[in-house]
Amino acid sequence: MKLDSKVPEGPLEEKWSEYKKNMKLVAPNNRRKYEVIIVGTGLAGGAAAASLAEMGYKVKSFCIQDSARRAHSIAAQGGINAAKNYPNDGDSIYRLFYDTIKGGDYRAREANVYRLAEVSNNIIDQAVAQGVPFAREYSGLLANRSFGGAQVSRTFYARGQTGQQLLLGAYQAMMRQVQEGGIEYYTRHEMLDVVMIDGQARGIVTRDLVSGEIKSFEADAVILATGGYGNVFYLSTNAKNSNATAAWRAHKKGALFANPCYVQVHPTCIPVSGDYQSKLTLMSESLRNDGRVWVPRKKGDDRHPNDIPEEERYYYLEERYPSFGNLVPRDVASRNAKMVCDDGLGVGETGLAVYLDFRDAIKRDGRDTISAKYGNLFDMYANITGENPYERPMRIYPAVHYTMGGLWVDYNLMTNIPGLFSAGEANFSDHGANRLGASALMQGLSDGYFVLPATIGNYLADVKPGTRYGTDHEEFKKAEAEAQAEIDKLLNIKGKRTIIDFHRTLGKIVWDKIGISRNKEGLEEAIKEIQALREEFWTNVFVPGDKNNYNKYLEYAFRLADYFELAELMAKDALQREESCGCHLREEYQTEEGEALRNDKDFAYVAAWEYQGVNGELKTTMHKEDLNFEFVELKQRSYK
Amino acid sequence: MSKDFTVHLKYWRQNGPDAKGFFEERTLNTVNEHMSFLEMLDVLNEELQLEGKEPVEFDYDCREGICGCCNLVINGQAHGPKGGTPTCQVHMYNYKDGDTIVIEPPRAAAFPVIKDLVVDRSAFDRIIEAGGYVSVKTGSAEEANTHPVEKHKSDTAFDYATCIGCGACVAACPNASASLFTGAKIAHLGLMPQGEVERSKRVVAMVDQMEAEGFGDCSNFGECEAVCPQEISISAIAEMRKDYVKAVFS
Question: Number of Cβ pairs closer than 8 Å across A and B?
Fold first, then answer.
């Protein structure tokens, strides 16, 4: 299969304007004849639904929660980047582009990233016009702050709830269109399949999560804005209901899945306290500005941390990385925390945590100063752990946070299936092998507000208006029957192990062997273990309740069934990528100092996988999209 | 290791909106102080399933206090004993060995039960749909710094905009009023210059919708403010009333 990225010709700065100049349009009076299905109501899906409905397309919007406003974009804390250059500190569209492509360790497509930087400013304009209460200076003008991986202040924020405020802006714009009749709005509906007729995406099959009814919906194009797959790991910072099912079902229908091994792990999360743990909570990385990370030098040292004298404390980041110390990048901090815990030096009841100590900062700056900077984070920590971080060091541990991989899309955000698009975290397009802070919100809204409204029209202009096959068409009926059969199969296993038990076991394999660092041996073991566990799942899982009622564990069961296949693909992808890049660290490919060693000669490509069925093992074929860097020079990262 | 302890649970069971509900009781012996309240319910559900029984349904998603899905009424109090947090941020160290914990859905005519502890809050969506927005089309926005907004105004607007739409205000109100929810959105948009143009139209449409959904009126009990996980001030309701009176009589 030849992967065509459909990147327009011409200089980098002119590609998107050239595209818009030449793209095909649908006339206003014809737009109402086209229906577009959008699955997911986060920043990408919500923004796309509102924007396309405003233009006059008939939109059908679907989400699994009880309201569009619950999508997990709501939990983003830090902020959103834009190249406004309000602080006059040297920012520009080019610099935002460059930081993003470099941050992604040169594994993203130049043209997509440049477009992202280009529309970033429009996003801020749009959000402000919606009444989003961004932080402001006393002048009344918008405030900015700096964020990791950048030398300029370009991050706009609304306290620690930027995601919430931007999502509510998109949600409100969307609800306006619901009222005006431009959007048919379906909550508590889960997509179980994409339906293709004559090689084109023509609709979806859903399950009504309240009544259990399996229903089909037809449209001229389908957009999947269904988020990432971090929950494969069982424990992550993702919302519990975030899942990969829509993307995976599309993959099973032929959509390629790109770079599944690129998973971002965040270093400063509240650690696991026991087997019952269901979720990991992120604390802002800014804590590492003043906190010192350490573990006891002696294994099994169970003294109160404050009783451990200075010389018996191992400040491992400061010792190993003298120039960056506690401020090394996310992946380095995460990797080192895991390494010291694997060596038996971890602290707390589980031994899977390291100390983040503010003792010296409080001594130096005073408690009030530290409280002013981090008060809300200290309160959050105290609430969850029942410990006072002013008096006892925090315990932290890394957690899975964001997935850069996703459905392969071209410059139009269209998958290799005509008419099937993917936006936001669900696609692979903009972050390469590592995402910079404050870029997820930017990408979701860029895709939804500005990219899809152009590219969807360009696609629909070639589709005959009013084409309808009806949901009685055999392809819909077949997909409905398959979805129903899988549900029946799950309910009829009536095995002995619970769904959560299986998921926890899968998560442990994925975390240990396809997590922060990987090696060939571990990945090969992981593949075998995943296959065996998947086999057991299909014969020994207990799925309670019935199918014609609200049944959250049934939903969970079919999402987990998909994770079993996706996990194996992640391992296979990590195995073939014999280099270290961004968040993907292969232990065999490191410099002498233990730094990631990229191999641009052999691996500057996107790995896009084609599904070919599961029979004991996952059958899959890799297709390559070569990444050609015409405009930036590839450089190795260093933080020694 | 911290020791497990025992709690006696009484939780609401109801098989659908029209079914008759009842309390089911069960003693849970493996509660750990570090568990969140929802993790305690996960453990309960694991036990039930291992006995081949149906788990208790409850709503949740982010489990970090921002999505607004969870909304349990615990021992008669919306979101439980802590105050200023949603249910998912209540941890079991707030309870002790031998405690009895009664768990109910938020009860209101406008929030029909779907199953067990899960209710239908789509009425909130319809209130926003009626007018909780600024009518600005994508692409038609002006440059973001064109209109300065006084910092204190913007900050106050944020305080109202922080509502997570959980419905605790309704559950706690003796009248099952949605005034704090509705008022918070009206106050947020009313404080921002971008929301000014539609101010009168918005308040009338949203208040009318709130009534049409079957929510009661506000009698200034203040229970809503007391249970709000985002600690939104009841002054939101005053803002709403002020706008409403102005809109209707001018």
Answer: 220
